[in-house]
């Protein structure tokens, strides 16, 4: 079952039929326990992600966006409200919400690239040959065919993240969760991976939930942007950026300014937000 | 890097000198020869058991000090013959009391020692406690304790195995080394199945429910048990002293044989295990299995057998080669 | 790629000395030969008693004889067998203890306490107690070896489990691994460098302990192990054999170092996971 020919039946629609959002976050309150105190991260957030949609959550550091992703992934129960994925209020982490983390060391160092992508498939019931074939396809999609035998410690940061993306996509998750996956990369690699990811997602039509603090990244990758603001944060606004033009267009610049205002960032014109 | 290269030559030279100096220091032995008619200090070592009684009498009555005023005697009681052997080789011990087994082994390997005065003959018993063990065949695979691998008991056990089982090494896989007190405790608590020991332990074990499966006299005839040894070097330097020592041993043995009550009283006086004089008297009068004498017996037979089973690589031509001149008149074997 | 000619600075002084320029496979054997030379010189010049010392040639002969007639091989195998089984038992117990510690707080406390109390005990110190409990047989030795092995392995494994990269664990849960599989497929390989480190230490301790224990154990007639061989040789005043036994120990020690190195190269080094040691 080749990926490339499958654009007509994207994973999201396949999984549960038509209608209903893939992800529904309803009046969710989130926080975590420190040593002595409870730290509220998100005061209240509500939004939905439709099938095949690419939703970006942006906010400043400490705005609870990573916590939000962890809650969606199932690592953290919400303190209030409900999180529903494909209609189910899921609790435990699972491959239907595959995650790409920010850290480079999210690959298993004792497996090579191919095994890192194939192993999760085998865990989820695929037979070996099937898993390997599928892994190869997704690795080709992410441009890593030449590196399938390498071990993670032999790869550059950008390549490692590509492997992580391939692994997550190969699981054909209901929704792909990405937690600032390019945050540790240099600007050039980062820009390249953003473009590549955009292209890949267009092909696979995967539903995306992406967290970042970079406005540009949000604009390049996203269709709708949830802006978190405050501490503890709330959803200040959800902005639809589908019509915004390419980065050199005036529409883009306007949207950029608008988002900056929403994020209430002062000064610092050259920062990467 | 610069420091390394600059200091390299002098450092290397210093290290080489240090190594050579250490080797030289290690090499110099502390064996100083004493050029006096009688030694100034002497260390005499013995082990546990009633068989050492002649020495104990010499010790208790301070006979050496009386014969040689000014002589400092150090008496050491050690748990086995091994440290005594080591001590004599190193020169820390001048006269050591041990069984005939270790004596022969040392003699054959070039310790250059000989018997200065035999102490006794003893019938050594192989004690068992388990009623299920009735014959030597029952001993196969069971745990048997002997004093050390070189002891006379270990040798006699091989002889017993040869006679009873056709193969001297038949019981080898179960041999364990234990000194007499530990062995006795192990036998009585069932940790081992057989204990090849010596007086008085075999008598004590007899009294506590054990029985003798085999006795050494039955396989070797009457034979010597304990002897005192000294190096040829010591004898050559202190010939008069050595002869005197022999006479004192003989004197003590006479006391044990002719006046056991007196001897027992002397032994009981300083005994650490609080054995009574009456108990001592009973032991030293069990003539059938323990005889105090300065006549060595069965040495040649023992050496021949040890050689046969590979425990000894050299056999003496005559028993005289194993003893010093004072012992010659006893007509030993 | 343009090549430009660059003025080459003069070599630093030290490198000109011959020794540093020789490859390792020449340097080490040369040093060994030099040491043997010192040994032979001592033997010849100082002429110590053959009851206390032996020269290289006698030792080499005793070593050769011991191996060709199989005796050294048999005793070495006996010792290695006991060591391997003892360490195996120790490893299993360590694994259980560490797993318990990783999963519960009381397990963690228990492990810490046991380590504090029992780790400092030298293996041989436990031997008399072991003989009392298990009798005068191999079980006592196994107990002593296991005790020597458990604590280094447990300590290292515990550290290994604790320092497992949490991101990987999150990935494991994310892809749907059950708790059991999380342990076997993620925690275990992640802790492997530490496990190997612990195993190396356990081996070193165990090796020393078994030889010492055999010396104390005093198994006489039966062949026993390498320690017994050495002790017996000494009893019978066969000093070259004593040295031959020691040489065997040294050679075995080096062999295992090499084996462990090879194991590491195939696993943790290949995976870029080697911890500093």
Q: Helicity level of chain A, as a percent range?
A: 25-40%
Query: What's the total count of β strands of chain B?
Result: 12
Task: Report the mean per-residue pLDDT of chain B as an integer.
Answer: 85
Number of domains of chain B: 2
Q: Main sheet of chain B?
A: 5 strands, mixed
Note the beta-strand portion of chain B: 15-25%
State the largest interface. Answer: B-C, 37 and 27 residues
**Low-pLDDT segments of chain B:** 27-35
Q: How far is the N terminus from the C terminus of chain A? A: 40 Å
Q: What is the CATH topology classification name of the largest domain in chain B?
A: D-Maltodextrin-Binding Protein, domain 2
Mean pLDDT of chain A: 86
- Strand order in the sheet with the most strands of chain A: 4-1-2-9-8-3-7-6-5
The end-to-end distance of chain B, rounded to whole angstroms, is 75 Å
Query: What does the oligomeric state look like here?
Result: heterotrimer
Q: Spatial order of the strands in the main sheet of chain B?
A: 2-1-3-11-4
Order of helices and strands of chain A: HEEEHEEHHHEHEHEEH
Number of helices in the DSSP assignment of chain B: 14
Helix and strand composition category of chain B: alpha/beta
Q: How large is the share of residues in beta strands of chain A?
A: 15-25%
Report on the architecture of this protein.
- The complex is a heterotrimer of chains A (273), B (333) and C (277).
- With 273 residues, chain A is α/β, with parallel strands linked by helices.
- Helix content of chain A is 34%, strand content 22%.
- Chain A has a nine-stranded mixed β-sheet with strand order 4-1-2-9-8-3-7-6-5, sandwiched between helices.
- In chain A, strand 1 and strand 2 form a beta hairpin.
- In chain A, helix 4 crosses helix 5 (157-170).
- The radius of gyration of chain A is 18 Å and the shape is globular.
- Chain B is α/β, with parallel strands linked by helices.
- Chain B has two domains: 41-121 and 223-330, D-Maltodextrin-Binding Protein, domain 2, CATH 3.40.190; 125-220, D-Maltodextrin-Binding Protein, domain 2 (3-Layer(aba) Sandwich).
- Helix content of chain B is 44%, strand content 16%.
- Chain B is built from 14 helices and twelve strands.
- Chain B has helices at residues 2-27, 53-60, 63-67, 81-90, 100-108, 152-165, 180-188, 201-207, 217-220, 232-237, 239-258, 260-269, 277-284, 299-308, and strands at 41-46, 72-77, 95-99, 113-118, 120-122, 125-128, 144-146, 175-177, 194-196, 211-215, 226-231, 290-292.
- In chain B, strands 2-1-3-11-4 form a five-stranded mixed β-sheet, with helices on both faces.
- The longest helix of chain B has 26 residues, at 2-27.
- Chain B starts with a helix and ends in a 25-residue tail after the last helix.
- The model of chain B is unreliable at 27-35 (pLDDT under 50).
- Chain C has helices at residues 18-21, 24-45, 56-68, 71-103, 105-118, 127-134, 138-162, 166-174, 179-190, 192-217, 226-235, 239-269.
- The longest helix of chain C is centred in the first third of the chain and has 33 residues, at 71-103.
- Chain C has a domain at 67-213: MetI-like fold.
- Chain C has twelve helices and no strands.
- Chain C is flat and about 70 Å long.
- The two termini of chain C are 39 Å apart.
- Classes of the chains: A alpha/beta (273), B alpha/beta (333), C mainly alpha (277).
- The interface between B and C is medium-sized, with 37 and 27 residues.
């Amino acid at each position: 079952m080749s990926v490339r020919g499958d654009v007509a039946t994207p994973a999201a629609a396949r999984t549960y039929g038509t209608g209903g959002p893939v992800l529904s976050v309803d009046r969710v309150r989130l926080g975590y326990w420190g040593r002595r105190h409870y730290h509220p991260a998100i005061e209240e957030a509500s939004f939905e992600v439709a099938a095949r949609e690419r939703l970006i959550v942006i906010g400043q550091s400490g705005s609870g966006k990573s916590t939000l992703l962890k809650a969606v992934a199932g690592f953290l129960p919400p303190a209030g409200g409900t999180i529903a994925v494909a209609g189910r209020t899921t609790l435990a982490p699972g491959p239907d919400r595959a995650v790409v983390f920010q850290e480079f060391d999210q690959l298993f160092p004792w497996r090579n690239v191919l095994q890192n992508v194939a192993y999760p498939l085998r865990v989820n019931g695929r037979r070996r040959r099937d898993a390997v074939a599928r892994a190869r396809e997704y690795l080709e999609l992410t441009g890593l065919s030449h590196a399938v035998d390498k071990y993670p410690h032999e790869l550059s940061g950008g390549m490692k993240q590509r492997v992580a993306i391939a692994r997550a996509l190969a699981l054909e998750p209901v929704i792909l969760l990405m937690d600032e996956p390019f945050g540790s990369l240099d600007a050039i690699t980062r820009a390249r991976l953003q473009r590549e990811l955009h292209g890949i997602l267009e092909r696979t039509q995967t539903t995306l939930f992406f967290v970042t603090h970079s406005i540009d990244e949000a604009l390049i990758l996203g269709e709708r942007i949830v802006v978190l603001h405050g501490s503890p944060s709330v959803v200040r606004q959800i902005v639809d950026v589908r019509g915004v033009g390419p980065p050199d267009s005036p529409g883009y610049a306007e949207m950029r300014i608008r988002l900056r205002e929403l994020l209430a960032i002062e000064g610092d014109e050259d920062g990467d937000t | 890097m610069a420091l390394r290269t600059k200091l390299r030559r002098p450092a290397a030279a210093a290290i080489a000198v240090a190594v050579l100096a250490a080797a030289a220091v290690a090499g110099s032995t502390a064996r100083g020869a004493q050029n006096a008619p009688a030694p100034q200090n002497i260390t005499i070592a013995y082990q546990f058991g009633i068989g050492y009684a002649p020495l104990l009498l010499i010790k208790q009555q301070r006979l050496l000090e009386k014969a040689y005023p000014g002589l400092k005697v150090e008496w050491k009681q050690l748990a086995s013959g091994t440290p005594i052997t080591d001590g004599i080789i190193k020169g820390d011990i001048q006269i050591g009391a041990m069984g005939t087994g270790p004596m022969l082994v040392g003699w054959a390997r070039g310790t250059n020692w000989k018997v200065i005065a035999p102490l006794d003959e003893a019938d050594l018993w192989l004690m068992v406690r388990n009623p299920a063990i009735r014959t030597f065949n029952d001993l196969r695979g069971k745990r048997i304790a002997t004093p050390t691998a070189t002891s006379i008991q270990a040798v006699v056990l091989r002889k017993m195995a040869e006679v009873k089982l056709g193969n001297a090494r038949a019981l080898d896989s179960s041999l364990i080394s234990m000194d007499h007190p530990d062995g006795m405790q192990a036998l009585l608590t069932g940790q081992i199945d057989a204990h090849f020991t010596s007086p008085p332990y075999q008598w004590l074990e007899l009294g506590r429910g054990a029985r003798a499966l085999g006795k050494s006299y039955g396989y070797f005839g009457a034979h010597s048990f304990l002897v005192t040894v000294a190096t040829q070097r010591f004898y050559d330097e202190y010939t008069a002293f050595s002869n005197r020592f022999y006479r004192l041993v003989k004197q003590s043995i006479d006391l044990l044989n002719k006046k056991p009550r007196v001897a027992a009283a002397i032994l009981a006086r300083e005994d650490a295990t609080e054995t009574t004089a009456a108990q001592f008297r009973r032991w030293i009068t069990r003539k059938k299995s323990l005889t105090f004498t300065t006549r060595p017996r069965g040495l040649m037979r023992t050496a021949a057998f040890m050689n046969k089973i590979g425990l000894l690589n050299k056999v003496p031509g005559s028993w005289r080669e194993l003893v010093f001149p004072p012992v010659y008149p006893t007509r030993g074997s | 790629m343009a090549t430009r000619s660059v003025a080459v600075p003069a070599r630093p002084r030290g490198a000109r000395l011959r020794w540093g320029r020789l490859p390792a496979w020449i340097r080490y054997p040369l040093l060994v030969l030099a040491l043997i030379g010192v040994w032979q010189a001592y033997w010849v010049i100082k002429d110590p008693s053959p009851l206390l010392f032996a020269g290289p040639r006698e030792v080499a002969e005793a070593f050769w004889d011991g191996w060709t007639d199989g005796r050294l091989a048999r005793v070495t195998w006996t010792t290695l067998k006991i060591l391997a089984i003892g360490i195996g038992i120790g490893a299993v117990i360590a694994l259980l203890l560490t797993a318990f510690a990783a999963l519960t707080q009381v397990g963690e406390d228990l492990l810490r306490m046991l380590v504090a109390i029992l780790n400092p005990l030298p293996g041989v110190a436990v031997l008399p107690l072991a003989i009392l409990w298990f009798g005068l047989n191999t079980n006592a030795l196994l107990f002593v070896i296991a005790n020597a092995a458990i604590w280094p392995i447990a300590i290292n494994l515990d550290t290994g489990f604790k320092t497992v990269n949490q991101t990987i664990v999150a990935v494991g849960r994310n892809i749907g691994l059950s708790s059991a599989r999380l342990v076997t497929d993620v925690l275990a390989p992640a802790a492997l460098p530490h496990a190997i480190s612990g195993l190396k230490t356990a081996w070193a301790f165990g090796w020393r302990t078994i030889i010492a224990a055999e010396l104390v154990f005093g198994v006489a007639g039966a062949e026993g192990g390498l320690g017994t061989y050495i002790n017996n040789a000494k009893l019978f005043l066969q000093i070259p054999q004593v040295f031959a036994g020691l040489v065997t120990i040294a050679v075995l020690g080096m062999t295992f170092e090499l084996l462990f190195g090879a194991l590491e190269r195939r696993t943790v080094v290949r995976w870029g996971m080697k911890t500093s040691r």
